[in-house]
Amino acid sequence: MFLEIVTPEAVLFSSKVDSFSVPGLDGEFQMLNNHAPVVSILREGTVKIHLHTLEHLEIDIISGKLEPHIDDDKILTLAIKSGTLELKDNKAIILAD
């Protein structure tokens, strides 16, 4: 699936991913390929992006706010204060603060 993370300042991430998890109002939840359409409000927490490979990832499109996970370099993390998620037809957009 394709994930894009956008803030008021810039596009922080834009690439294909295996899955990602986000901090929802009722707890963390994960989006996988071919997930049903979703619109959700996000609370303060960490977005975890699960990459299949780092091979096609363009480092110059990644802001310094994205960090590799301590235990797995194929997982990127991003701390957010709040946001909105929309997922439809294997394309997800996170509008984050």
Key structural traits:
97 residues, mainly beta, ATP_synth_F1_dsu/esu, five-stranded mixed sheet, five-stranded antiparallel sheet, ATP Synthase, domain 1
What does this structure look like?
By secondary structure, the protein is mostly beta strands. It has one domain (2-96): ATP Synthase, domain 1, CATH 2.60.15.10. The chain contains no helices and ten strands. The chain has strands spanning 2-6, 11-16, 19-24, 27-32, 38-42, 45-50, 67-68, 75-80, 83-88, 91-96. It has a five-stranded mixed β-sheet with strand order 2-1-10-9-5, with no helix packed on it. Strands 4-3-6-8-7 form a five-stranded antiparallel β-sheet, with no helix packed on it. The two termini are 23 Å apart. It is found in: Endomembrane system.
Under CATH, the topology can be stated as ATP Synthase, domain 1
| Order of H and E elements | EEEEEEEEEE
Q: Span from first to last CA?
A: 23 Å
Main β-sheet description? 5 strands, mixed
Poorly predicted sequence stretches spanning 5 or more consecutive residues: 59-63
Function: Produces ATP from ADP in the presence of a proton gradient across the membrane.
Protein name: ATP synthase F1 complex delta/epsilon subunit N-terminal domain-containing protein
GO molecular function, one term: proton-transporting ATP synthase activity, rotational mechanism
GO cellular component, one term: proton-transporting ATP synthase complex
